[in-house]
Each structure stands twice: as structure tokens, then as C-alpha cells.
Amino acid sequence: MKSIPKYLLLLLVFFGSTKQYGQHHSLIDVEVNIDHKTLTVLQEIEYFNQSEDSLTSIVLNDWNNAYSTKTSPLGKRFSDEFYRGFHLAADKERGSTQIKNITNNAAVPLSWERTERNPDLIVVKLKQKLAPNEKIVLHLDYIVKVPSDKFTNYGYSERGGMYLKNWFLAAARYENHSFIRYNNLNLDDITNAVSNFDVLVRIPKNIQLTSDLNEISTTQTDRFTIHKLQGNTRTDFSVFVEPDTSFRSFKNNTVEVLTNLRGYKADEIQKAIAIDRIVTFTSDLIGKPHTEKITVAQADYDRNPFYGLNQMPTFLVPFPDDFLFEIKFLKTYLNNYLKNNLKLDPRKDNWIYDGIQVYTMMRYIEEYYPDCKMTGRISDFKLFKGFHLLNLEFNEQYSYFYLLMARKNLDQPLGNSKNTLIKFNEQIASKYRAGLSLIYLDNYLGNNSVSTSIRQFNALNAEKMGAQNDFETLLKSNTKKDIDWFFKTIINSREIIDYKFANVSKTTDSISFSLKNKTKIAVPISVYGLKNDSIVFKKWIEPKLNDSIYTLERKQANKIVINYKNEVPEFNLRNNWKKLEGFYPNNRPVKFAFIKDLEDPYYNQIIYAPILTYNVYDGLSPGVRFHNRAILNRPFVYDINPTYSIKSESLTGSAIFMINKDYRNSTFFNVRYSVSANYFHYAPDASYLKINPMVLMQIRSEDYRDNRKQFLLMRQVIINREKSDIVIDSSLQDYSVFDLKYINTRTELTNHISFVGDVQFSGEFGKISTEIQYRKLFEDNRQLNLRMYAGAFTYNKSNSDFYSFALDRPTDYLFDYAYLGRSSETGLVSQEFILAEGGFKSKLEPAYGNQWITTLNGSYSIWNWIEAYGDIGFVKNSNQKEKFLFDTGIRFNLLTDYFELFFPIYSSKGWEISQPHYNEKIRFVITLNPDKFIQLFTRKWF
Question: 715 vs 72, 678, 735, 760, 804, CA distance in Å?
């Protein structure tokens, strides 16, 4: 006993012998320092080798140390998802783990390593091999620097409290002859070995503690409150310390729930009723909790909110306060309940957690809120009756969130490891599809087979670590039907399901039809018979061959519908029905929808909305937009935008017709065929018409988290311009240019690099050009921007500079740029800057090059969003020697590519800041296109 530290003797006295032979056990003594945001930890880990292998080392998860550097896997994950908070944070806000020593039970120091590549894992090297069924005791002495909770909601808060999660060292799970080595990627999926925990927490006397461990006793000293906590057969636990506890306790015969979930104006009685109902429902459907206490924290909900509800301002949320609390509590309780109960690998088998969670939520809504709409009381207003989106059943939204990604060709197999999912799939689409898939299987099998299997799986996990194979075995044991298709197609592939009717015939008493399987994926599908929107029959069909004929009793049905209740996660619902009466059985009536709506499979939707465009020559141009761009992508899109130019008193506008072709399971991602037209004024007295047939091919890695994207664009730009008495080059009225462009770009928060190669040919000229951009955000939060542009004519028959390379302001003969005043040479709009071609900010001579041009643009941070910029380059014109030019100045980079200001200082002209009319030399970037702004918010999701 001499080798055992005194703190462990103290713990043994407190807790007695709680160890179980064959189980890992951890004794933890921790002192919390609120002021310094640190934890001083003494820990004993008794590791029992439950494997068949002799071990030479033990891997410990040290996920708190993932916060120690910006270049850790966690830091790179933040950068990949365009989260700036971690990179810009002060060092004091980051976390770390300082190891003082690690020894064995004989007090012999053990060597250990933590690599730069894996800063959140510690490999402890043993002096002797640890044989199967043998155990070793490790003694650890370390200090935890707690990170700010602004990164992940775990850590210390500005209010003086802490949410301690994944803060202690724990043995990693051992499986298939090796330790599972997962980095902390902010996915809440730490894979610790199952252990028993005895924890002694010393906190200052004025601080309160809440935990999901069992509290054995509380002791007061002069300085500290000492909490003795205990938990058995667990992989993790949570500790909350606050100046004043925000948690309330709710207890029934099943479990004690501790929650600080904010419930708007829901009173305590309403909360208690909702909590009791959810706990009871969950226990009946899945099984009883394996722990005596479960915490449901606001921080847990904030990490994984109910998307849709969380986007609305409080005063606009169309649900009663008690329902809002109930749905938030349901989601968060299920998440924590399942994490405590199921001992799965939460990264590899994540779909099971998600599937059971959403499955239970959907069953709960069916039970207690069967008439609830996705948009709550908004659907009751007559004004919104025509909106399909606003009249969806509450549970129907899950299917559409999955379809949102499937139609973008960005859905991923449910069986994929959680760390490989793009953010929208990880937090929304895959999660919802997993639940829908279990609902689908349950409806197909009947007899509550899935619910029975879930309860059995929950019971199994009380005895051992579970895995997907166990769940699959239980599902198959509870039915006589073949369900291999479920795991092969629904879980482990991204194959899409799409059925339609073929060869429909009817009599007074029967209906005969065959099903066309458009994607060649044979899975069960439901067929409904409807009479005036009332269901008269339902039949599950297991199609094998396209020419199979099915005959069903008609039962007075006047319409048959595939997948009427959307039980099957089907790709296309628009081809799922047939009328059995009427002269045109397949005609969908036209339906006008205001602004933007969800795709309604039973109508041909025409969406309309008011629009307002602006340029200097047309002025404000109100109009109406007609299109079929519903929230879900479509294979064929039209978008027609007629406007009226108030200034020129004429009709203007644009239109596009586009066909999208996705290629699934291929790096050849998408091909878009389109024809567009634009008619606006390019000068006060002249208009232009642009017709642009185009093919755009997109190449994307099969690893959807890779931000690299490649595009190949081929187009013929046809321009017809009215002659202007104001614009010098207006004599060049009609022309056509063929453009071939290749784009290769990879973007994240800290690094951006892109390459563009461009070839253009017309009767007047031929030219080639290339552009390379590089951006680097350094660890000191300073940013470097570099851009190189080079272009040359292969031939040039033009007698003007209309097609020439521009040093600072392109003529834009292809009409690609949204200039406010493209032909203006004076006034504010002439100072607009668009980063293209030469990229200079100062207006220098020669302004154009009709042979070749090469320039380098750069900027570097001085302080926050203030940067110093500089441009250098050579411009070559025929019969002239190439000329070297430069400029320098200050850039206010308020929002890159959206709102910037450039103040020239010194250039080839000399000191510009001292020259007359300096205000006319200032350049600006401003973006008015709302679609570009939306990309700022969507890039982290897709």
C-alpha cells in the first residue's frame, strides 16, 4: 500500500471497494480553480486487459488537449467549416493538458508520447507486456486548462461557470486487436472504454455542482465543498459547476432528470408534465435508462438544436411555449439517454444513435401531436393556405431535409463514419434519414418488429459493448421477411429510390399496374388507393422485375399513389400517382406560389415574386420573377425576370433555362446545360442583348468533406449592342465569343488557393490567360493575399482596346460582371473595383494591353481588417516597349469580395495621396446580389 498516493487512499476510504473484476476502473481526485480556469487532477486507472492480445502500450484519450493549438485536428476542422472563432481566439481561451507524471503501481515512471499529429491522444508505454485477463494500475498527475465554451459549448463560461465534458484522461476502446484512435473533431463521439468511476471533486465553497454521476456525499471544509460522485459501467460523464445552479431536478419512478433547458414562458408544472411524459414514453418504447440520473443542459441543445425552430426569432416562433420546451427537451433527452445507454462506437455506428433518436421523436409526435404542422399555427391562416411548405405535417419535414441533400447530389451513406460526413449531413440530413429508414422498416415489417428490436438492443448494451452487427441480428430475428436490402441499400449505400407507375388499367372492381423502377434499386414500396383524398387501401409491394403485373381490389378508388405517406425515403415524388378517372389522368393542375415554396408533387408550380434591380442607366427597375426553383433542386429549371426600367422607360430583364444532370458515385459530379438571356442598358442611350448557351461540368472528390472543386465551362457568348453616341467603342455592336474555362479551387478559413485557365476565340481576337490566387491566415491572425494574372493574345485584329487586357477596370465585353455603371468614366460608379485581369487599384497609363499583360496583386494585414496592398506588373502593346507599373495603398477589407475600400498612396504616378481630387481615386467593392451573400452562410454546411 505504500506505493498508493494518499489521495487514492482517501478515495478508497470514501467509496470502499466498488471495483468489479474484469472491468476498468478509474479513481479521480480533481480540484477546480474557477479563477484560473484549471483542474488539478490526480487519477488512478485500473486497466484490465479484456482482449485476446498482449499489450505493450495503452492509449488514453486526452480530448481537452485538442484545444491547445490552431493546427490540431480540431483546429483544422474549424478551419474546414469556416469557423473563425477558434483561430482568432486568445491563447488564454484555449485549453490544454499538462502531464506531470505517469507511473505504475510500483511508482515506476512510465514513458509516454503525444504526437503533433495526434495531440489529443497519449500512448503510455508499459514496462512489461500486459497479458490477456491481467490488469495494470496507472497513476496520473496532470493539470487541465479548461477552454472557453464559445468554441463547442464545453468549457468555462463568462458567467463564472464550467461545463466539464471530455476533460479527464480515459482509456480508449480496444477492438479488433487495436485501440480506437479518434481525434476530437467536435462531433461528441469520444470512444472510451467502459469503466466504473469514483470521483472526488473539490470546488470553492461558493460554487454549486451538478453531475449525471450519483452523488454519494457532500462535505464542507474551510475553503472547499467536496463532492463524492460515483458511476458504474459508463464511458463518460458530465460535471457542471456554477456560482448559482441553473439546474432543476425532476424525478419519477424511472430516472432523475436534471435540466436547465430554457423553456420560453413554460411554467414549472408544464415542464414537469412534459418531462414525465417524455421519460415514460422513452422507457416504454426503448427501455429503461441504465443510469439513475440524466442531465439535459441548454448547452447540449445548443450544440444540436432542432433545426428550423432554432432559426426563428422568439416572437415569430409559431408554437406554444410548452410545446417548444417539450420538443427541445425530447431531442436533447434522447441524445443524452442514448449516449449513456448504448455502448456503441459513436463514430463508426453513429447512424444507430441518430436513427433511434429520430424514430422515437416521430413516434412521439404521432402519439401526442398527430395534427401538428411543421409551421405550427401559421398553417391556420387563410393567407398561407396555398403554401405547401407551411401545410406540411410535422413529421414530413424530416423527409424534405434529406431530399434537400439528395437533390444536391450531396447525400452520403448512413453507414459512413461520422467524421466523413459534411456538416449538413452530420447534423441534419443523415440524422433525419436514419430515423426515416427505421420508420420505413417498421411500417414494412409490421408487428412493432423494430420497436421490439430496439428494446432488446438497449437491454443487450446494459451487459456489453454493442455494435451494428448486434442490432442487425436482432432485427432479423424478429421477422421472417428478408431485410438484407435494408442494410445493403438503405444503410450502406447512397443509392436512390424512385418508382413510377406503368401500364395502369382498371375495371369497376380491380386495378392492374406494373411498377417502373427508375433507379434499378429493388426495395419494398407502398401503394395506396384514394377516394377523394381518403385512403381506401394500402399494399406493400416487393418489386423484382419491371414487367411484373400487380392486381389489387379497387374499393372505389379514383386515384392510386406510390408512397402516399412518404414512408419510403424516395428521391422523386412527382411521378408517384395516377388518376383513375378523367380524360387526362396525368395532367397536374397549375398552381401559383408566392416567393418560394416546397415542391408539391401533385401540382405544376409556378413561383412568382416581386424583384427590384438597379444599374445607373436603367435606374430602379421593378419587376416580377416567374420560376420553378423550389427549395429542392430540380432536373429542369426556368427563371424568367421581366423588369421595367423607370429611367429608360423600357422593358428589361433576364431569363435562364437549365437542365441539371447529376452523376452519383462518381467524381464527375454534375453537368449543367443552360441557355440564358439578358437585356439591359450599358449606356444612357443604348441597350445590349446577351445570349449565352453554356455547358458547365463540375468535378468533385468522392470525399465530400474535401473543399476542392473543379469546373470546366464551355460557352458561346453572343452580344448585340445598340450604337451609342456616348460610348467610344459602341461601333463594335454585334460579336460572338467562344469561351473555354477551367477552374480548380480549394477554400477553407486559413487557406485558399485557386487556379483559372481561360481560352477565348472570336473573329476579332484569340487570347489565353491564367489566374492564380492564394490566401493564408497565419497563426498570429495576420492574412496574406496574393494573386497572379497573366494573359496574351494569340491574334488581335481589333483596332480598339475593347477586347484588350485591362490594368484596373475591364471593359467586360462578355457582360459577366455586375457593374453599377459599366460605361461610366466619371462619377462614383466609375470608381467601382472588380478584381479581374490586371487587378490594379490606381488608374495608370497604359490602362490596356493589346499584346500581353502580367501582374501580381498582394495585400497583408496591418491591424484587424486594415491591410497594406501593392500591385506590380508589365503591360505590352504593339509597337511599344513593355511598361512596368506599380501602385500601393491601404485596403479596408471589411468583408472580402463583398465590401472593401482601397485608398491609393504611392504609384507610378508618384504620391497619389497628395494629388488633386484624391477622393476620386478611392476604389470600392460592393456586392448587392443576395445569392452571393447566402454563400457566406451555406459554405460551412455543404
Answer: 43, 15, 14, 10, 20
Give residue 455's Cα distance to chain centre. Answer: 31
Q: How many CA atoms within 13 Å lie on the side-chain side of 87?
A: 24
540: CB partners within 8 A, 6+ apart: 444, 524, 525, 526, 527
Please determine, for residue 583, whether its predicted confidence score (pLDDT) is greater than 80: no
Nearby residues of 756 by Cβ (< 8 Å), 6 or more positions away: 741, 742, 743, 744, 770, 771, 772
Cα 415 from Cα 32, distance rounded (Å): 40
- The C-alpha R_g of the chain, in whole angstroms, comes to 33
pLDDT above 80 for 933: no
> Quick check: 391 and 373 in contact, CB under 8 A?
yes
| Helix or strand holding residue 591 (H, E) | strand 590-594
User: What is the C-alpha to C-alpha distance for residues 227 and 678, in angstroms, rounded to an integer?
Assistant: 72
Instruction: Give CA–CA dist 805/51, Å, rounded.
Output: 69
Cα torsion 893, 897, 900, 905 to 10°: value is 80
Closest CA to 449 of 425, 430, 472, 429: 472
886 beta partners = 872
Q: Is 734 helix (H, G, I), strand (E, B) or coil?
A: strand
pTM of the predicted structure, to 2 decimals: 0.91
- Taking the C-alpha atoms of residue 790 and residue 288, their distance in angstroms, rounded to an integer, is 68
Residue 887 CA, distance from chain mean position: 41
Distances (CA, A) of 242 to 103, 153, 203, 847: 33, 15, 10, 65
pLDDT in tens, 203-239: 999 899 999 999 999 999 989 999 999 999 999 999 9
What residue type is assigned to position 570 of the chain? E
* Residues 6 or more apart in contact with residue 761 via CB below 8 angstroms: 737, 738
- Distant-in-sequence, close-in-space partners of 804: CB < 8 Å, separation ≥ 6: 796, 798, 811, 848, 849, 850
State mean pLDDT over 157-169. 95
The 10s digit of each residue's pLDDT in 472-495 is: 999 999 999 999 999 999 999 999
Give the separation between CA 865 and CA 217, rounded to whole angstroms.
Answer: 54
Closest CA to 188 of 210, 172, 166, 218: 166
Element (H, E) at 269: helix 268-285
Residue with cell string 475553503: 223
Nearest CA to 893 out of 870, 918, 921, 864 is that of 864
Q: Supply φ then ψ for residue 760, to 5 degrees.
A: -130, 140
pLDDT digits (tens, 9 = 90+) for 432-485: 999 999 999 999 999 899 999 999 999 999 888 889 999 999 999 999 999 999
* DSSP 8-state code for residue 148: B
| pLDDT tens digits, 262-312 | 876 788 898 999 999 999 999 999 999 999 999 999 999 999 998 866 555
Count of beta carbons in the 10 Å neighbourhood of residue 916 = 6
Residue 732 pLDDT: 72
Residue-by-residue DSSP string for 612-632: EEEETTTEEEEEEEEE---SS
**Helical segments of 369-467, H only:** 397-407, 423-424, 430-445, 449-461
